[in-house]
Amino acid sequence: MYRTDVGFFVPLLHTHFDLHHGTIIPIAIALAFVHSYRLHFSLPPSDTKLSVIRQEIAEYTQLPEHSFKLIHAGAVMKDDNAPISAYGIKPNSTIALVGGGEALAPAPSAKAEKAPRNEENTISQIRGELDKVRHTLQPDVDVFLTTLSPSAPASHPAHSSSMVHAPKSSQARVDSEQEHARLGELLLQSLLRLDAITAEGEWEEARRERKGAVREVQALLDRLDGGWRARARS
């Protein structure tokens, strides 16, 4: 289980994992275009291969496994087959995640079928990601904020895919903390996917589209966390 907390903007893709043996403790994440986040991560046995940690990070962030580097004690950990003990990773260690690794090579069939990348299909990719947020996550955020405070404003009439259609008896049992974590994680993943979309230097429209999409998703995340903080103060 991961959980996000709000921090502040940072200029680069830069993630920290504070590890603690045998228990789940908060770990801090700071990512381009988004806030600092605090997640939960448990330290595996010392003979666990580094590749296991890389796979878990990739699964959570939705980034290709080799699109980022893992750094510990100022050194890049290059051998994914080495055990984490070889890198001196122990309870309360910090691992930094930075962009700049090699992207995974697509399968031969994918190479043959994939259309040449241009500004038009890059814009379509950005809009597709934003449409998913608008049609799936935004309604859930609206419903969630309404359950926190019936007077909380919703940006649109909400028809939540995960909450609205649930029976009232089951809605009453929904753990609001888990729902806040779920929505925050999904919005963070959307921001990561938008951040991973590159716009070439001359693709001004694509850059504007991505900037606008990031701003909209970030605003939704801010509204989610703002409502959660207001609930805690009330």
TrEMBL record:
<dbReference type="InterPro" id="IPR029071">
    <property type="entry name" value="Ubiquitin-like_domsf"/>
</dbReference>
<dbReference type="GO" id="GO:0050821">
    <property type="term" value="P:protein stabilization"/>
</dbReference>
<dbReference type="GO" id="GO:0005634">
    <property type="term" value="C:nucleus"/>
</dbReference>
<feature type="compositionally biased region" description="Low complexity">
    <location>
        <begin position="150"/>
        <end position="162"/>
    </location>
</feature>
<dbReference type="Pfam" id="PF00240">
    <property type="entry name" value="ubiquitin"/>
</dbReference>
<feature type="region of interest" description="Disordered">
    <location>
        <begin position="150"/>
        <end position="178"/>
    </location>
</feature>
<dbReference type="InterPro" id="IPR003103">
    <property type="entry name" value="BAG_domain"/>
</dbReference>
<dbReference type="InterPro" id="IPR036533">
    <property type="entry name" value="BAG_dom_sf"/>
</dbReference>
<protein>
    <recommendedName>
        <fullName>BAG domain-containing protein</fullName>
    </recommendedName>
</protein>
<dbReference type="GO" id="GO:0016020">
    <property type="term" value="C:membrane"/>
</dbReference>
<feature type="domain" description="BAG">
    <location>
        <begin position="161"/>
        <end position="228"/>
    </location>
</feature>
<keyword id="KW-0143">Chaperone</keyword>
<feature type="domain" description="Ubiquitin-like">
    <location>
        <begin position="50"/>
        <end position="98"/>
    </location>
</feature>
<dbReference type="InterPro" id="IPR000626">
    <property type="entry name" value="Ubiquitin-like_dom"/>
</dbReference>
<dbReference type="InterPro" id="IPR039773">
    <property type="entry name" value="BAG_chaperone_regulator"/>
</dbReference>
<dbReference type="Pfam" id="PF02179">
    <property type="entry name" value="BAG"/>
</dbReference>
<dbReference type="GO" id="GO:0005829">
    <property type="term" value="C:cytosol"/>
</dbReference>
<dbReference type="GO" id="GO:0051087">
    <property type="term" value="F:protein-folding chaperone binding"/>
</dbReference>
<dbReference type="GO" id="GO:0000774">
    <property type="term" value="F:adenyl-nucleotide exchange factor activity"/>
</dbReference>
